Amino acid sequence: xxxxxxxxxxxxxxxxxxxxxxxxxxxxxxxxxxxxxxxxxxxxxxxxxxxxxxxxxxxxxxxxxxxxxxxxxxxxxxxxxxxxxxxxxxxxxxxxxxxxxxxxxxxxxxxxxxxxxxxxxxxxxxxxxxxxxxxxxxxxxxxxxxxxxxxxxxxxxxxxxxxxxxxxxxxxxxxxxxxxxxxxxxxxxxxxxxxxxxxxxxxxxxxxxxxxxxxxxxxxxxxxxxxxxxxxxxxxxxxxxxxxxxxxxxxxxxxxxxxxxxxxxxxxxxxxxxxxxxxxxxxxxxxxxxxxxxxxxxxxxxxxxxxxxxxxxxxxxxxxxxxxxxxxxxxxxxxxxxxxxxxxxxxxxxxxxxxxxxxxxxxxxxxxxxxxxxxxxxxxxxxxxxxxxxxxxxxxxxxxxxxxxxxxxxxxxxxxxxxxxxxxxxxxxxxxxxxxxxxxxxxxxxxxxxxxxxxxxxxxxxxxxxxxxxxxxxxxxxxxxxxxxxxxxxxxxxxxxxxxxxxxxxxxxxxxxxxxxxxxxxxxxxxxxxxxxxxxxxxxxxxxxxxxxxxxxxxxxxxxxxxxxxxxxxxxxxxxxxxxxxxxxxxxxxx
Length: 591
Ligand SMILES: [Zn+2]
Description:
Elements: H1 4-16, H2 27-42, E1 48-49, E2 52-55, E3 58-60, E4 68-69, E5 71-75, E6 78-83, H3 85-91, E7 92-93, E8 97-99, E9 104-107, E10 109-114, H4 116-124, E11 126-127, H5 134-145, E12 154-159, H6 172-176, E13 184-188, E14 193-196, H7 198-204, E15 216-220, E16 226-232, H8 235-239, H9 247-263, E17 266-274, H10 276-287, E18 294-300, H11 304-312, E19 315-317, H12 318-321, E20 323-331, H13 361-373, E21 377-382, H14 385-401, H15 406-409, E22 412-415, H16 424-430, E23 433-435, H17 438-444, H18 448-456, H19 463-468, H20 486-495, H21 515-521, H22 524-529, E24 547-550, H23 559-562, E25 567-572, E26 575-579, H24 581-589
Parallel strand pairs: 1-7, 2-8, 3-9, 10-17, 11-12, 12-13, 17-18, 18-20, 20-21, 21-22, 22-23
Antiparallel strand pairs: 2-5, 3-4, 5-6, 9-24, 13-14, 14-16, 15-16, 24-25, 25-26
Helix pairs in contact: 1-2, 4-9, 9-10, 13-14, 17-20
The structure holds zinc ion.
Zinc ion (ZN) binds next to loops.
């Protein structure tokens, strides 16, 4: 039955559905009155037809006024009802009723900093993540070199010298020993360095006399000869001769990336750095119904794609919210692992080195202003405390000079990894969003203090300090740098431990997030970071029906058990886009 209580409930829900803004108290009585009038006008004793009902669940809505629920009604691509089993059953009927049998349900997870095509390419090329020796890598490269077409390059990604005994950068000779005549190109795990063999350097024309480009470094031996490792902007010397992947290969990579995402419960990714061809592939996939996912895309730096979009303006929530293009990604420095992050004081383990800045404050100011004037959000990669300080200063100046409200600009700093203690409160004051990756912390904790020393480390991966200063901290994985599995990120956020539980009690545990914060970081806060909090990020009336069902309740179980928790089903826009085999079985039998 369509009851009076239900109407009241619906109105209350509406009022509280946006916990990021405050509604004046006066609105309550007016809306209640309107609700009573509407009730009499629209009274309809018949339950509404829903396309799907989810019953008997433990649902975490991420709406602080109604944090949990038992049941959801879905109509088309939207959530039409949330509440108790009784309330939903009384108000809706459906030919598709799913009994969740007490399973835990969350808003679809949003990874708010990642690289979709690179994830797919990573899966389709040599995966070096987790390798712990040069010998292991040589074996994988040798195997791939027998598989590739004549003239092709061996490509791979994921090496990390910090995992090897030597802890030092590798050399081209180690790859020459495997393949002399096939060019080999291997990206470091963080993407900020590339390791190649002599053949690849010969193709690129790299010799002793090749100069380091601005913002980049060619690693050399004592005699000045390039050793085969290229850092940050020096990577372009190789990229310029690397054969571009075909549209078919890129499409295959994107499709592989999407499949990997929905299997781990992601319903949306903020794709940090797309070009025109990638956008056109997205649109083709959407048009042909092969895009069971959502992407909030940031254009990769100033170039042809930026020129196009500055002229034509953002594309917001196109195709039922599948694709939004309204952000620009810029880089201010490199990464900590390859000592490319720009620090205020020199590296503690490399006293002659303060890292690299990739753009002057002047250039940033011009581009950030242009973006703001054309309705685009800016996402600047800044890892070191110097890069973060420069970026905050630029954002502050641009907000002031344009008299812009922070929540309208929602400027972002991607990673915000090492912060000067005087800069932490500025994020909240300027409304600049620190976009952080919990798993970066737990991957870097083994060596980060060597790079930064005991004082600076206190401002590194400082989630709690930022939260206490009033910021939200949306979370991502930066995949393929880390695993796309948001549960690994959630685990890292609440424990600051690796998968073996090291270190006991957590690494700088005072900076941990609570479970509620960590879940918001992967849902509602990600939506806010993409101006999408009205349509997603929580289980609320009229929001998109993006929902994930897990095997266990990650808000309650032991942290170690989170790592073995898996996805039963991922629902995007009311469609089940992934389901585990046992759950698929249950769906088929319809109990
Ligand atoms: Zn990234």
